[in-house]
Amino acid sequence: MLIYTIAPIEEVLKGLEDTERELIEVEINGVPIQIERTSPTSGQIVRVFSTDPQDFLDPNLQPGITIPLGPEGR
Fold it and tell me: Which has the closest alpha carbon to 62: 39, 23, 33, 24?
């Protein structure tokens, strides 16, 4: 999306500052993934770190999926 404006970019993006996120790297079934903790007991998959294309087709490893976590990750 393009925005054409004479307003300063700081004004346009005000309120969209990136907040601090708690990102954790874990393995699920031998596949390394990155998770954002959304609560003390669950997290949301953010990224899949794999060199196997089949891992990206696994519906259980899709970004956005919520998975249960223990207190120190998985």
Answer: 33
